[in-house]
Design brief:
Structural class: alpha+beta
Shape: elongated
Radius of gyration: 27 Å
Strand content: 15-25%
Distance between the termini: 56 Å
Number of strands: 10
């Protein structure tokens, strides 16, 4: 919960003397909600925000910054914080005092963790817990079922969350170490792709809410699975659009074509279009920014249905890595030369077809390339 950093009783360094605390619970609060809170937090309400900050040994101003960064609402000076809140404050402040993190970085850690876990918690309650707490017998209420279910699930979900986080941390650390130098750890050369459902706005007017929700969930789930399986990284989902990144152009190209092919084989899905760009990307809090990302988004908006458009830098990277020929004429010449020498001709996975140059809003004139697969005979499929 976030605190309100206004109030009396603060000394020069922002700390405050203990005050009489209000009653721990609002008379209007649901008793089961309070019991669930105590179960999940593992501690009872003991502190007002001022008392928690003082107990943690941090200023009220810094405590407020941390709590707001974690995404919690202001609670004034209600007695609603626990020993766990004090410990979290103490840990973050300790990292700053030890010189391991700057204050700004500690706030960023709080914000990134809060944003990520908030979405996870909402999903678990909306999609998971609601189904499990349906009353099993007539006459029982959901509230009578919820507490024992949460009590059973909580330790297992906590352990699983820590496991997945450690796995993701290891994978991310590995990518950073392989970057090679300090500059690449923040500004890296990546392939960035957007996949967008065509005509989604029209669908929202025709479909029932539940039906639309199922379509979006199926799209996001399928996309996430394909991106992960092929070695890419799903950056974020935006309902009718997914953003992914890959360290190399070949991986990004394979993901894009698989997405188009998979959605085309699903009669319940609208057509898909994909745009990919390759270049320097700035990464912050798990997201990606920069001209490369903007270009990928613009290419998606002009891509034909069930097709993939890429920028010149991406096309050049595929040619450099021998994943695509410079042209079909060049591929034919290479095949003829190999046959003359009694050697196997080079095998390319992808084909590139230059499209008409066109102005793209905010980025000037670009030359898109149409990305397709090459069939076993060596031509475009």
């Amino acid at each position: 919960m976030t605190v309100d950093d206004t109030g009396s009783g603060a000394d020069g360094d922002g700390r405050v003397d203990p005050e009489p605390a209000p009653d721990p619970a609002d008379p209007g609060e649901d008793p089961l909600a309070l019991r669930l809170e105590g179960l999940i937090l593992g501690a009872e309400r003991r502190y007002t925000p001022f008392q928690a900050a003082r107990s943690a040994g941090v200023s009220m101003e810094l405590a407020s910054r941390f709590w707001r960064a974690m995404g919690f609402a202001d609670i004034g000076q209600a007695k609603a914080l626990t020993e766990a809140d004090v410990l979290a404050l103490r840990r973050l402040a300790g990292l700053v005092e030890a010189g391991l993190l700057s204050e700004a970085m500690a706030v960023q850690v709080a914000r990134s963790t809060g944003q990520t876990t908030a979405r996870l918690a909402e999903w678990q309650i909306d999609s998971f817990l609601e189904g499990l707490t349906e009353p099993p017998e007539p006459g029982m209420t959901r509230t009578e079922v919820t507490y024992p279910i949460v009590e059973l699930l909580l330790p297992e979900l906590q352990e699983f969350l820590v496991y997945v986080w450690r796995r993701q941390l290891a994978a991310s650390a590995g990518r950073v170490i392989q970057a090679g130098d300090d500059e690449e750890m923040v500004d890296r050369r990546l392939a960035v792709g957007f996949a967008d459902l065509v005509g989604f706005t029209r669908l929202t007017r025709r479909m029932e809410e539940e039906e639309l929700g199922e379509l979006v969930e199926a799209f996001e789930t399928t996309s996430a699975d394909l991106v992960a399986a092929r070695g890419g990284r799903l950056v974020k989902t935006l309902g009718d659009e997914v953003l992914y990144a890959a360290d190399d152009a070949g991986t990004a190209a394979e993901i894009a074509l698989l997405l188009v092919e998979t959605m085309a084989n699903d009669e319940t899905m609208p057509e898909l279009r994909v745009g990919i760009a390759f270049g320097t990307v700035t990464t912050r809090m798990g997201d990606v920014f920069g001209t490369t990302v903007n270009l990928a988004s613009r290419l998606t908006s002009i891509a034909p249905k069930d097709a993939v458009l890429v920028d010149t830098a991406f096309a050049e990277e595929l040619i450099r890595t021998r994943d695509a020929p410079a042209s079909e004429a060049a591929a034919a010449e290479e095949a003829a030369a190999a046959e003359k020498e009694g050697e196997e001709p080079p095998v390319y996975r992808f084909a590139l077809q230059p499209m008409w140059q066109r102005p793209v809003r905010g980025l000037g004139v670009v030359e898109p390339w149409l990305l397709t697969r090459r069939d076993s005979g060596g031509g475009e499929s």
